[in-house]
Amino acid sequence: MPASPSRWLCVPALGTLLAWTGLPVLLVLTLAFREPYSDQWRQQFPLLNGSFPGSVLQLESGHRQVLPNLVRLADLHWTGGSGELLAWTGASLFALTLLLAWRLLRRAPRPPAANRCLALTFLGLGVGFLAQARMLLHPNESVQLGGVWALLLLALHLLLTAASWRNLALALLCATAATFCFGTGFAVHAAILALLVLLRRSIWQLLVAGLSAFAVLYLYRHVLPGEDGIAANTPWAPADLAANLPRWLAAPFVQAFFGLADPSFQAGIADAVAERGPHGALLVGAARVVAAPLGPERTMHVAAAVAGVAGLLLLLRACWRTFVRARGPLDEQEPIRRFGLGLALFATAAGGLVCVARTEFFAATPGQLFAERYLVWSGLFWSGLAIHSLAGAERPRTVALGTLAAALIALTLWPVQRSWMSWGVATKNQVERTALALRLGIDDKATAPMAADLGALSFAQCVHAVRERRLQMFAEPELPAIGTTLATDPPDASLPELPARLQPVTAQPTLLHAAVDLPAPLLTAAGQEWPILDARGAVVGRLRADESSALWRRLPQPLVSRRGNLYLLATAATGPCHLVTTTAPHVPLAILR
Questions:
Q1: Among 127, 133, 130, 120, CA closest to 15
Q2: Among 150, 273, 279, 529, which is least packed by CB within 10 angstroms?
Q3: Taking a C-beta distance cutoff of 8 angstroms, is the pair 226, 58 a contact?
Q4: d(CA 58, CA 260)
């Protein structure tokens, strides 16, 4: 029997895991959007205006987000829609996913420590890729995907630990709960059915699992209210499925490398990566060299098809090996291999669901096969294959090579990781500015894109529902209205002026943004807001120290390059204005239009 790999391999594996997954957890906790963003305006409208339980059973783009809606409803009623409950729930589910994986990897016969650490590292690489920042930072979506991840891991733990009826029943319960977290959670049922076949479990267990999946699907589609997006008009097209699924599965490779050759693929990300020093420039340059013969768009599709087909062939090989060994004695690495296989089977089934439901959509917009919102599922496919092939290897040399490969992947993609982190900071700032504009009643039409895809609702309807209940950005005490005159003392002439170079952030000159160094007394008041007064004492806007930038300034450089952010929203700011605050003397502020 080959010797067990050395325990020292745990150090680089766990170091890679901590560096790669620590940031996503930190991002969810600190940069999660506390104000409504994009389609969250539409999704929370029925929760505010509907009656329980129909409001949480609502159908949203073909998904029944029952469990996330319960958390969102609690957040709206218990915390004023602050988003804190959603953010902490999402981060907790992310951490729980890794803890459940570690628990599963410790089951008897216990695999060597190096194999277990490497398996956990590959899982972390899949779930911690920040190209899926939109899902991680949108609090409700972090609960959706975190719930599916955690329930998938719990179902695999139950199914692979013992072949008892009790464990099967609990695993099917987890699959049902995952289905009502997000539509792709139904793929947990498919993974359970496939594993029951490959592990040669009882035909009666397979029959019960099949009936359970059918009952849940029937309930989902035909019993619960709502038809939009469920009774799909898309015809069954096996040829389209065969063409789309491999490319859909290979989306992580496109987001991490091939897509960098096309600056228009992810707005600003390729340029941001190129600006991350020689490392980022080399990565973008390599992508453009590879894409030169066929062009960026064609290269993405060809490379994704090749990688996806190769991945599916590896999956078939893994399925056959598991089926052959199912009746034999378990070796030390077999629990790891089965765990990785379960992840890959789930991701393949999830991809099948997406490609079937979105056939016409992908035909019209082929680039959406690689959309970042799908990485939360396709990333698990490659994590599962790597866990099965490398972390589950018997040879110590293979485990060592797998550890080196994991570290090289994390190091190579670090500029991409940092660029998406910066995207999260910038989007968080944009969300805060939009919320502040709404709170001040500034009618800036350019804020509407932040609430895209509202369906039959209008942006005004969504805002009115929040305002009349004094939730989210309207939960704090009323601000002095624009134009109100306040009694103030003259500015303190002993304090230096803050030369704020204000730049419009929208098409209209009503929303201005300044990046300056805040004085020390104001740094302690990050997140507070102050009225901006003109020389006559009339309120012309509101100044706010951004919370996220204050936090990120405490992190080691070069993670964050900018320092203080001020938001100035004004309808008419001409000439010198000054800041009024209870935490510091009056600070003159020169307004440059």
A1: 120
A2: 279
A3: yes
A4: 38
